[in-house]
Amino acid sequence: MAVEVGGVKAAPVLIFAPGLGAGSANTAEALAAVLAEEMTQADACRVFTAVSAAEVPAPPALTVAPTVVDGENRPILQVFEYDYRNALDPSTAPATPSVVGGMVKSVVLAVRGLVHLARAWRRPAKGLRTKVQLAAGMAAVGSLGFGVLIAGYALLATLGLDLPLWMWLGTEEQNATATFGVATTASALTWAGVRRRILALAAVADRFIRYAHNDDSVASTITQRLDSAVVQLRRNGWTGPVHLLGYCFGSLVVLDAVLPRATDLHGHAAMDSVQQIWTVGSPLDIVRLYAPSFLAGRTARKPDVSWCNIFNEADILASNLRDADDAGAGAGSFELNGVRAESIRYTGEAVGPARLLVTARAHSAYWSTPDRANCLHPVARAFLAAAARPAS
């Protein structure tokens, strides 16, 4: 059952900026369904559902998602999705980042990340355990790539090319041949098993670097398009308050919209409508670890905006916005030009040995389907509190 367009335009608006992945939960449709279930669980009197909003007009850059309604079909929340990903790179597919060059580029990015991490080791944005995990992961990728290259070198030697392999190891040729034979088999099998994951991570890292540096004004362009979408909502008659929710990479998009860079010459009018921002699994601490100037000189376009940040300590990519402490939460722990963040920790998992190997699991587990545990209860309660209760 669809809702009437006229009535929904007075409801609060939630614009969802997804992460880079193509998971089914990384959509505004899934977000709306989970929020509706959470509202139902939190309200003893009403049942909320996410219904089709096919008739609801969406401005350019936004995709209309379901409307959350109560049992009397009154709109409580209208969800939109802001898919910025096609602006990151011309080759980026709508649902997922395209894969970068290959093994050599992946190794170069890993080595580059390791070198920059060494330079940033004393910066407090991340705790020691997380830094060790990051270093171990990048060293593993670099070593694996190097092993594959050496294995290729050994393969050329087995084809009869006169390559002084034993000189590389300082040992006899016979021993070198056996050593390289083992390296060839082990590296080839390992690379074949993890190739797609490593290339995907390299693609994500490449886009983080471009976005952080604002190469080709990519970050400014993404912010400008979101500005235009919010302005167009108002021109089209939407009167409800606007909320922004960014997951993973999308959280950086949300922050750039509300707290633009000093070099972004945007006006303030577009963000006047924004009442609250939510960041989930945000990589901001990783970004400020590598690029401490990322937040320098920013201005708050909406100084009184409310900011809630949700993180999972086991998710190495996530941020609690506390220096040298990856587990702590709390209000006011991070402030940027008058805008304060309240950080909420989700799950009791923690960073541990080899956690980097399974951090993707934690990073994708903030929400999935309405019948699974999720981190969106605070979000749902915020909209539930703002909704007018039916007359008794």
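the 2nd protein, sequnce then structure:
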Amino acid sequence: MNSTTLRTSLVAAAASLALVLSACSSGHSGDPPNPGAATGGAGTSASGKHHTIAFVPGCTCDPYYSTETAGFQAAAKAAGATAIVQGPANFQASEQIPVLQAVVQKKPDAIVIDPTDATALAAPIEAAIARGIPVMTTGNNARTDKIFTAIAAGSVKGGRLGGQELIKQAPQGGDVVFVHIKPGITSIDDRDKGFKQAFGGQTAYNVLPELYASQDSATQAAGLVQAAISAHPRLVAIFASNVITAEGAANAVRAAGKAGRIAVVGYDASAQEVTHLRAGNLTALVSQNPYTIGQLAVQNTVKYLDGDRSIPKDQPLDPVIVTKDNLNDPAIQNTLYK
């Protein structure tokens, strides 16, 4: 994506947001609020009703979610809604389900959730809806058609863009590998799919089996990548699927003395990932712009609660490639995580 196209896309998105969120800045000021805390604002929506909206992030352990939470809370304040934010400490369905059930007991007017598992969260989400609480998802999907909308950066497209960037950075060909977490996380599965699409028909490259960092641990991911570097001397490119695996991959490449010699795309754009990008341990990032996703979640929920039933069922957003060359572009800076 070139700089002109990026600016055009982001300006259009900002203009759309401004229609409803004109009182809310799209930038990030200061540290994001504690994702586990509940905050609120007094006031009413355009319909004259006061709404309480809950957000259940995938965990409170990831800068993606703290950034999305910041956007959610800022937009709720701008819309005059009360925000409830409660998430599990770890990205595990077994931890998120009881959090969701506890939020349901608070009887919010609506719930926004980023499901940790497409299958495991489907029934708990449907149970909330059965109690008269409308639900929408952000980020990951759930296997239910009862939500009123889903908003996320297009993960297949993000995986494809990241793969295409790796081809640019390692044009000589060789072995490439995708660092996964575990099957069943829809966004990661889709990134893997897009990654494979990028390398489809590229005969100069050999796509190795996925590396599964099932504990979602940077240390575990680093160990897997170190082993892959040792076992595959022709390894030229790595796609790390989230903040944690990107941290592990960057550390492994640096420890092996391969920084700048192996192209490494990290999904997401946390402060630590940006530091690794500047140092050359990561060679590109794929940002999902979670702050804007949090804002849009509130915007769409308020519309729904005010009676708008024309909201699209699926609202994919364009992910953004971040490199050293465009990192200081103001439009790119607005997509980085805080």
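The two ends are 23 Å apart (CA to CA). The chain is about 40% helix and 15% strand.
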